[in-house]
Specification:
Number of domains: 2
Order of helices and strands: HEEEEEHHHEHEEHHEHEHHEHEEEE
Oligomer: single chain
Number of helices: 11
Radius of gyration: 23 Å
Structural class: alpha/beta
Helix content: 25-40%
Largest sheet: 6 strands, mixed
CATH topology of the largest domain: Rossmann fold
């Protein structure tokens, strides 16, 4: 018995340093940084008209009930500008994070600290790099090529092609299509002709795995710095995905990616899909459209383009927050403006930042949990 205990003690002392080494290596993969939470905010009146010309002082942002200090502000397709001294804001946020539990993941909103966004040594300050990262929009278009699309396939291609050509102020556009699988027909590019060629070469497929494909699209978009949106054209319900739509919506919310969905009258006849489309777009700050014909499809794309040109960009460094679960965001307007309506995402879930080889943080989606909407 004594010999057995002695052997166990020896093994324990041998294995403990190795385990500690592995733990240190695992912890080294996570890098704490000061990140911005970026919001795309639409403000409209009772008639649905966009309200322009608002100032940073017109907005009140709270996260879990705590009022946040706006750091960067922009309107429409113009570049964002600093509202306060970024160095001081980052310093305040660093102190707040230092007082938090260091063993838990840092907040992540996928617009990295200026030193990650671009090195000042490359010419230009860190603030310039951050402004460049926030300005403009990267638009990811996801097109339903399942067997639901046979009837209106050519009309949908025409509408998407016109939409691509009309996005003059967008930085880059990517075009994906899906049926059972996702096809990345055109990666993110500034070449509109390449994107249109990707649209024209799509062919109708089989079953529809919308939520599987949308999850992959959101993951791709989350890797980009700056503003990004996903525009989905879907002609029917999802009949072959394994990913629940709630998980897709939560990832898009946490990554700050509005989802716009254009669907057809056929899709609206299916109540479950209708409810999911409306709930997902509302949660991420986007919109859902249900078109009766190809003319309505074109109008829906025009509305999305108009929306992108009127969004306010609000960014802040979050204050100390011990909540590492779902964080609720509210954006309100100052003064008596009950006739105005604000649309944006309603929160996010912090995720660990990883910088393998010095690259931008990647979104972890191995088992995304659903947040109550």
């Amino acid at each position: 018995m004594t010999r057995r205990i002695w052997i166990r003690l020896v093994l324990t002392f041998i294995l403990l340093p190795a385990a500690a080494t592995r733990t240190s290596a695992q912890q080294a993969q996570f890098q704490v940084s000061v990140d911005l939470v970026q919001l795309n905010v639409a403000v409209t009146d009772n008639k649905g008209n966009y309200v322009t010309g608002l100032k940073p002082s017109d907005f009140i942002i709270t996260e879990d009930g705590v009022q946040e200090k706006l750091a960067f502000f922009g309107e429409g397709n113009g570049p964002a500008r600093s509202v306060v001294d970024p160095a001081q804001t980052q310093d305040d946020s660093s102190k707040a994070q230092a007082s938090d539990d260091p063993s838990k993941p840092a907040n992540a909103s996928f617009v990295p600290h200026p030193e990650v966004a671009g090195s000042p040594e490359g010419g230009g300050s860190a603030t310039d790099s951050l402004n460049a990262a926030i300005a403009g929009s990267n638009v990811f278009i996801l097109f339903d090529t399942s067997n639901y699309m046979y009837r209106g396939f050519v009309f949908a291609q025409d509408a998407i092609s016109d939409f691509v050509r009309s996005l003059e102020k967008a930085d880059k556009i990517a075009f994906y299509s899906y049926s059972r699988d996702l096809s990345r027909a055109s990666s993110l590019t500034a070449d509109r002709g390449e994107v249109v060629r990707g649209v024209r070469t799509t062919v109708a497929g089989d079953d529809a795995a919308l939520y599987n494909s949308l999850l992959l699209t959101v993951k791709d978009a989350a890797q980009c710095m700056g503003r990004k949106v996903v525009v989905v054209f879907s002609n029917g319900p999802d009949n072959s995905s394994v990913v629940p739509p709630e998980d897709v919506a939560e990832l898009a919310q946490s990554a700050g990616i509005p989802i716009y969905m254009i669907s057809t009258r056929e899709a609206r006849l299916e109540p479950v899909s209708t409810a999911v489309f409306e709930r997902m777009t509302a949660a991420t700050g986007g919109k859902a459209y249900f078109s009766k014909n190809w003319r309505d499809e074109r109008k829906a794309f025009e509305s999305i383009r108009d929306d992108l040109g009127h969004l306010y960009s609000l960014s802040y460094y979050p204050k100390a927050n011990s909540n590492h679960g779902w964080r609720t965001i509210t954006v309100k307007l100052t003064g008596d403006r009950k006739n105005l309506h604000v649309r944006t995402r309603n929160g996010y879930r912090p995720q660990p930042n990883r910088y393998p080889g010095g690259t931008v943080a990647e979104v972890s989606t191995e088992k995304p949990s659903s947040a109550s909407q």
